[in-house]
Amino acid sequence: MKIWQKPTLEVLKVH
Amino acid sequence: MKWLMAKGMVMTIDCVYSQVEGNIISDMDGEKVMFSIVNGKYYNLGEVGGAIWDLLQEPNSINGMVSQLQEEYDVDEKTCEMQVMEFIAMLHKEGLIKQN
Question: Which residue in A has a C-alpha nearest to residue B76's C-alpha?
Fold first, then answer.
């Protein structure tokens, strides 16, 4: 079984 | 469990969602990075978020996704359900998925 991590949606910084 | 979303929408475990077309996906060291050609934003979905994204290739219910994730990950049902709903709400708010 894989370790569960809370799913997150991260907006990446764009230049 | 019910989850109140933007614009007064309510999410339950029976709600069905699927990906919106127009996203470019890349796997980077097990994490999914995505570019939306619709809104021009880049996103990092992470490893678990990427797994959820894959489950949304075809219309899938919250309940269905939780069951599939529990087969792969060591997580109890309530935790999985709550965190998946929160993540789905974020995807929906960004316009990356649609409710079927």
Answer: A4
| List of chain A residues whose C-beta atoms are within 8 Å of the C-beta of residue B19 | none
Please tell me the predicted confidence (pLDDT) of residue A13: 63
The token pair that represents B25 in the structure block: 């996906």
Can you read off the two tokens belonging to residue B24? 């470019």
- Give per-residue pLDDT as tens, B49-75: 999 999 998 899 998 999 999 998 999
What is the CATH architecture of B2-21+47-99?
A: Orthogonal Bundle (1.10)
Cβ–Cβ below 8 Å for B74 and A7: no
Please state, in angstroms and rounded to a whole number, the distance separating the CA atoms of residues B65 and B8.
23
| Domain ranges across chain B | 2-21+47-99
CB B96 within 8 A of CB B20: yes
CB-CB neighbors (< 8 A) of B83 in chain A: 6-7
SS3 B69: helix
